[in-house]
Amino acid sequence: MDSSINKKIDVAILAARQAGKIILEKLGNTAFSDKAKSNLVTEADLTAQKTITDCIRKHFPTHGIFAEEEALLLNKGAEDLWIIDPLDGTNNFAHTIPHFSISIAYTRAGQVVAGVIFDPNRDEMFTAVKGSGAFLNGTSISVSEARSLQEAIIATGFYYDRDLMMRKTLETIEKLFEANIHGIRRFGSAALDLCWVACGRFDAYFEYKLSPWDFAAGMLILEEAGGKCTDHMGNPLNLKSKGIAVSNGQFHQEFLNIIRWN
Hints:
By secondary structure, the chain is an alpha+beta fold. The protein contains 7 helices and 15 strands. It has helices at 3-26, 43-59, 90-94, 164-178, 190-198, 212-224, 252-259; strands at residues 32-36, 39-42, 64-67, 72-74, 80-88, 101-108, 111-119, 124-129, 134-136, 139-140, 153-156, 183-185, 204-207, 228-230, 244-247.
């Protein structure tokens, strides 16, 4: 790993830990409001985002920043861009459910080069640099060895739209159960779902609509752990993708045959 990437990972870890400390301090003691139906934003989201962006700009003042809250975009057009979700799992956080994360990805010329996802409740720091593997608290991780859907436990998520997309997700879950999977889990943090596939806790994950800050870091972590990442139609996953389908790579086509949706 070259020294310039080393510094970026170190700064991302520092920013994630600072944000995690703030978020835990505010857990159970923060107001929230609706961004849209069922889509909450809390004081913790905003404070954590400022903490992360301030940390990055202190070390890399010319870099661009693209972050979820308030649709923040700084230094548009910069070749070096950070993609940030300061609190992935806000609905869990707002209801004091201890399952949420901070996601920070560094991209160069549109490609994710480094990623960090921090689970402050478990003190788990997932990291990856392109071409150098994926790690949990400094220990190398890899995907599971499940060989078929029948051996798999699968994660999913629901977008805030409770109309057609919700019905399609429920229909797909039914089809997956008909394929005799071990089980379905819906925990509410896409970033952690990706990391949990990466470290073998889940075998696959799908969701029909996500934003880049939801999956940019997790996509790299999972790929570096040996997983397979596509959109829900089977196309290579990239920062412009909307839906996501990931797995340990052992049964990906079988998985896609069930979840594919135009």
